Amino acid sequence: MTLRPLGFTAIVIATAGALGSLLFAVLAPGGWTVVKALILACFALQAPWLGICLGNALPGLLILLLARQPARAVLPVAGDIEARPVQLMTAIAVTLRAEEMTLVLPPLRRLLDGLDAAGAGERFVLWLLSDTPAGALATAEESALAAFRAADARPARVHYRRRQNNAGLKAGNVMDFLDHHAGGCELALMLDADSAMSAGAVLRLVRIMQAAPRLGIVQHLTAGAPAEAAFARLFQFGMRAGMRVWATGQAWWQGDAGPYWGHNAVLRIAPFRAHCRLAPLPGGGPLLSHDQVEAARLRAAGWGVCVWADDDGSLEAHPPAMPEFLRRECRWLAGNMQYRHVIGAPGLRPMGRWQLLQAMLLFAGAPLSLAMLALATANVATGGAAACPRGRLAVLAVGWTLTLYAPKLFGYLELALDAERRAEYGGGAALARSAAAEFAFTLLLDAPAQFEKARALLWLARGRPAGWPGQNRRARAVGWGEAARLFWPHTGFGAAVFAVLLWAGPSAALWAAPFAGGLLTAIPFAVFTANARFSAWLRRKGVATMPEERPPPEPSAPATLRPAMDAEY
After folding, report:
1. At the N or C end, where does the chain have fewer CB atoms within 10 A?
2. Where are the domains positioned within the chain?
3. 320-348, pLDDT tens digit by residue?
4. What CA–CA distance (Å, rounded) separates 278 from 290?
5. In this structure, are residues 248 and 72 in contact, taking their beta carbons and an 8 Å threshold?
């Protein structure tokens, strides 16, 4: 196990070195200028993230292709986790704040019914933990919960608690519950309002915790739930392919020092209460992104944190449209950048600090990407690219793209090479169409997303307070007026860049189009990916259709080598 982090580090260094050498070779002809030096400096600061992408994706792909049960192969737990009876009492804890209960409650009903059908219902209690302010929403919430409880087979196991204030936000909500309401339970299954888990997935997590008494958290990999809106549909298709590869590779080298994402996970209550209380940040504000800090503290206290790297039976909803998606990204950015206050805290282990650093790197590269685009444009406009070797530039562009998107590209490759999984996605042709559509979607989304995150970092640097507002989870239309109001700065920046490139030479604009063209199309992109007719067309054509949306296989289909989740339990 100790050699695995070294293998990961070697991939990161080799990737950064190879791409850095290519960039140097592209920039050097014609002599060095201040602009070229700044381009190289911006790359050097982004290079670690490119290496991380390949460092997690490459071992993840190999394990998925070679291991009979990949998730079990990278789980740092010895012994049998399948045949153990469920013995520990577990609280199913769902955090709420101004949510639509018609979306929250049906997945919980299916989970409770599934646990009852598995003969384990008596080992679980359900708690809905509300931070909804007093008013009409809170009243509706209480009424919906009362009806839900009355209809349950065991009404006494369904509980509801609403705080009068939301001190500490979600982390405070959870700790208040563990302190005052979780008596009699040793474990807590943490669910967000948009979480949906099957009984088989939950029972597996509990059995893992029973098999490993020193585990503090076991985190389930989570996929996007089937969606109607084109934006969510395409986004989650790529996310599912990429996260499976990423999580498998990451679990391989991180072992029991893995991440915690705050939901669709089981935690051990006693050590969590003892070690995961979060003090206010300097200035008195709460820590917005609490989960990785809690994982780091558990590891510092000697408790393990690991990932079950399979998403079967573990779902969440993704934002239905581009405005909601970017608002969520900026919320996460604000929370993750707060880690700068705690990454140097005494007692954390190196891997715990690494988890916090990686979470910050996820967003810190956004202004560097925009700076590189602006500097490259200036280099072209001043003639600095006249001697650029086009062949090496092409290799650099392809290498950069393959490295940055390695997790999802490797995920598609793994699906294509596995006949059974390929069939779950409708066959090779359907998979290829969906992957191509999703990759085009990603290229168009990434440039405006980087611009938005760079703006959010600037606002934070200027002292603008970070909030954590509620989320719209229902599909909706995005009008042209709303899109123009939100994304005119992105479009304006893109128009300025491409105007200069076209003036300097059309070929330069062609080179930039795949990476920055999304800035020009941000407004129509936001409109069309939320359009009901376009979304319905995608569904009719079977584009980005998830396995859960397809009919079950015929009974005569050959048995899988990788046992289905519910068959194991």
Report:
1. N
2. 1-77+212-569
3. 999 999 999 999 999 999 999 999 999 99
4. 8
5. no
